[in-house]
Amino acid sequence: MAKLQYTFKNDILFKMLFVKNPDLLKALVAVILDIPAESIAAFEILNPEMTPEHIKSKFCRLDINMRVNDQQVNLEIQVNWEEHYPERTLFYWARDYSSALASGEDYSQLPRTIVASIVDFVLFDDSGEYRSFFQPLEITRHTLLSDKMGFYFFELPKLPETVNENDPLLLWMSLFSADTEEKLEKIKKMEVPVMSEAINAYRSITVSPEYRELERIRDRALHDEATALRRAKDEGRNEGINEKASEIASKLIKLGMSSLQIVEITGLPLDEVEKLRSAVFLS
Question: What is the sign, positive or negative, of the torsion defined by CA atoms of 191, 192, 193, 198?
Fold first, then answer.
């Protein structure tokens, strides 16, 4: 099987594809929220920016924040397993929810805020279902505290092997999971219009100079940071090295990299990386 050089799980590709094709994003969000696409009267991408400077200097989180009717929806894709991923998700939900209240407005004006995460790892070992939805409930009576908080998780490793063209959610998730040309073609041969449109848009993005340049900048930025740190260590210049390593580790944490990967890149002890991770979430 011919492996794809870039998959739909690539965060730069993910954001570029859907920002440039908002109709595809709208179709995906409708499926995730389980609502008819035609019921979405108001739809706006709130953070479409993705400049080379942003990727290089900020190690940004390439999520997509949207206003969908009267709801705020945040969508992201995460490849690397993250030990504190649920807490990370709560943190970003809290930031989005609290920042939606304008000065002078009362709490009733806060919008329903949803975070949807597509993850390429098993997050919940106690379930064979690839789709999970969480809301705050009283643990005995299961009374809903508020419908303004909601979390969707889609675990790609749990997808069934058989793809049904009549199941739009499974089709979308299978598209994100596809890592070979054969799997993409299998989906395209089902002749579901929105899937064909998504695959065509994907092919257009992956050959574009804009996308290739952003990928190059991301790879170069990570490589340069790691190389500079290693060179400093090899030359025995200890002053400031730990501070620089901590700075790089904090950026990689924000990027979504796992603790073990950060240890490998920076040389910091695992417990120090975990302390930095806690500090990042609290900042």
Answer: negative
For residues 150 and 72, the answer to whether their CB atoms sit within 8 Å is no
Question: What are the strands, taking DSSP E only, across the chain?
Answer: 43-45, 64-68, 71-78, 112-119, 131-134, 149-155
Residues 6+ apart with CB under 8 A from 136: 144, 145, 146, 149
Q: Give the number of other Cβ atoms within 10 Å of residue 2's Cβ.
A: 9
CA distance 229 to 246: 10
- Residue 114 CB partners (closer than 8 Å, separation 6+): 33, 71, 72, 73, 74, 150, 151, 152
Kindly list the distances between the CA atom of residue 282 and the CA atoms of 95, 130, 262, in Å, as whole numbers in the listed order.
11, 30, 19
With CA atoms as reference, report the closest residue to 50 among 213, 166, 207, 256: 213
Taking the C-alpha atoms of residue 126 and residue 96, their distance in angstroms, rounded to an integer, is 29
Question: What radius of gyration do the chain's Cα atoms show?
Answer: 20
Compute the average pLDDT of residues 247-269.
78
Does the reported pTM lie above 0.85?
A: no
Nearest to 187 by CA among 171, 168, 207, 205: 171
Letter string b/e over residues 43-67, b meaning 16 or more CB atoms within 10 A of that residue's CB: bebeeeebeeeebbeebbbbbbbbe
Q: Find all residues with CB under 8 Å of 83, minimum gap 6, and list them.
A: 258, 259
At residue 241 the predicted structure's pLDDT band, cuts being 50, 70 and 90, is low
Return the minimum-mean-pLDDT range out of 23-37, 53-67, 268-282.
53-67
Give the per-residue pLDDT at 180.
Answer: 94
Q: Which amino acid is residue 42, in one-letter code? A: A
Cβ(104)–Cβ(141) below 8 Å:
no
Q: What is the rounded CA–CA span in Å between residue 165 and residue 126? A: 28
Q: Is the pLDDT of residue 58 over 50?
A: no
Residue 131, beta-bridge partner list: 154
